[in-house]
Amino acid sequence: MNSKPLAVYRLMPSARNLRTLRPDDSLIDLKRWQFQGDRVPRPTAFAAAWTGDPKAREAEFASDYPGAPILGGRLADRLRDDLEKSGPLLPVRVEEPSADTYFLHLVDRIVDCVDTRASSQPKKATGEMQKTVFRPDALPLALLSFRVPQFPVGVQWNGWAVDRLTELLGDDIEARLVWSEDPAVRPHPSPWGF
What we know:
Layout: E1 7-13, E2 18-23, H1 26-36, E3 46-51, E4 57-58, E5 70-72, H2 73-83, E6 89-94, E7 102-105, E8 145-148, E9 151-158, H3 159-169, E10 173-180
Parallel strand pairs: 2-4, 3-6
Antiparallel strand pairs: 1-9, 1-10, 2-3, 5-7, 6-7, 8-9
């Protein structure tokens, strides 16, 4: 049994000198699906372009958009079984040639696990909450990642998943604490900001 306190994070590439992928207009279809669910077509294709110094190393966790985690093929292969419990991996069409293939982790698992009384009021446009408090008994602990109904365009990552990704990627990934059941640990002041 894991003795670490439960925690939820937002993940993004680190601020190191890494090339990252910026989604193209297919991000609009993704956000529309995240907000509206089955009322609109589920995305089946995704495209992105490299940003950053062309001489820099390509990030394996390559997108800083909170609802569109893009992973390198080697990383996706290592985590595929666990990732696919949260949703499928869609190939990403990258404009420039790359040393690796990339996949969008299309997180379709929405879990009602937010303590709405203890959390901040969601922003009207996005649902983003400055302070999010989770109900420990409702957290989907078997999933690496999930979304919540209040903020459907943000992918949340369980603490054990962050430990695993940090073990694989080291300093190439930034994990911003959204919530911890340990009251002595302070969440990031702006987990969804840039």
